[in-house]
TrEMBL record:
BP terms from Gene Ontology: regulation of DNA-templated transcription
Protein name: Homeodomain-like domain-containing protein
Keyword Zinc-finger in record: no
SUPFAM superfamilies noted in UniProt: C-terminal effector domain of the bipartite response regulators
UniProt GO molecular function: DNA binding
PROSITE patterns in the cross-refs: HTH_LUXR_2
Ranges where the HTH luxR-type domain occurs: 264-324
Length: 327
């Protein structure tokens, strides 16, 4: 029990023997615990330092502190240690911000007006992304064309998402339809959607980009692994408009509905179909996007009409917008 406080098992055994045999002397404790008398005396000195026994008088110089008092002492000491550790971590976080600033600034070229940064090193791009997301206040949007992130990149990506969500920053992500064929990436996105990430898939997102608060964008450089960081709403607006256009054309990601009872569909799956209907897509196109049969799409459409109490697909689209199903 006391191991959680860093107390060795033999020390705890000596303490327990004192609780159970209040009249025991060092010789008897040594016999109970299975150690020598000198070892018992050393453990008693340690328990005294831990304030789990108090110095008495006579033939029993040590008396065990009642367990509820002993645990309170240990908990108080541990809480003080954790508070100090938290203070040290906070200081380290402040130092990290300064270190990242130094690392990025020394490796970034900036125009005279400070509106465009040129970064050549992909490692610096990652650090700059860290800086910008740390300063986000409104929303962060990612567009990720191409293949799925490799497994090694999943944990850092999840940490970034979790930090933003913990601060209440809305997070939007657009990925390619094809990338969802990669199991680890599909599973990661499903977990993040459950946590609050807004994720959608698109057949062919045109560019990799990150938009922070609508006034900063990270864009790829042609034929380079580096990036451009663009500042100012007027410069970022075309990129933001492109993202919004792709976002509207993309479909929401929903958890895997395999295993649902026959004839039943999740609310998320129905909303996914409604979003595609609102884009004017036909049943055949929806079936291809969702990798299901046309018959299943028509059943989903029927479920959507029923859920929205709509008489037609057009009315379903109107009602879906009013309910916030389609944004």
């Amino acid at each position: 029990m006391l191991e959680v406080f860093g107390i060795q098992s033999v020390t705890e055994s000596v303490y327990r023997s004192m609780l159970e045999r209040p009249s025991a002397d060092t010789t008897e404790i040594a016999r109970i615990v299975g150690i020598s008398v000198p070892q018992v005396k050393a453990e008693l000195d340690l328990l005294a330092d831990l304030m789990l026994v108090e110095v008495g008088a006579g033939t029993r110089p040590f008396q065990a502190i009642p367990p509820e008092q002993a645990i309170a002492v240990l908990i108080g000491r541990e809480e003080a240690r954790l508070a100090e550790r938290q203070r040290q971590v906070s200081e380290a976080r402040e130092d990290l911000t300064a270190l990242v600033e130094s690392f990025v600034t020394s490796r970034t070229q900036t125009d005279t007006q400070g509106r465009v940064e040129v970064i050549d090193d992909p490692r610096v791009v990652t650090s700059r992304l860290f800086q910008l997301t740390q300063g986000a206040h409104e929303r962060v949007s990612f567009m990720l064309p191409g293949h799925a992130l490799p497994p090694a990149a999943i944990a850092p990506s999840a940490r970034l998402d979790d930090e933003l969500l913990a601060r209440g920053i809305p997070l939007r992500v657009v990925v390619t339809d094809a990338s969802l064929d990669t199991p680890h990436w599909r599973d990661h996105l499903a977990r993040q959607v459950v946590l609050g990430v807004q994720a959608r898939s698109h057949p062919a997102p045109p560019h990799r980009m990150v938009i922070v608060d609508g006034d900063v964008a990270i864009l790829p450089r042609d034929e380079s692994s580096g990036a451009l960081v663009v500042h100012g709403c007027d410069l970022v607006a075309p990129t933001a408009a492109l993202f919004d256009e792709i976002w509207q054309a993309a479909i929401p990601l929903v958890p895997d509905t395999a295993g649902a009872p026959e004839g039943e569909f999740s609310d998320a799956r129905v909303r996914q179909v409604v979003a595609l209907l609102a884009q004017g897509q036909k049943d055949e196109a929806i079936a291809r996007r969702l990798n299901v049969s046309v018959r299943t799409v028509r059943r989903l459409v029927s479920a959507a009409l029923s859920a929205l109490h709509a008489e037609s697909r057009f009315e379903a689209g109107v009602l879906a917008v009013k309910r916030g199903w389609v944004v």
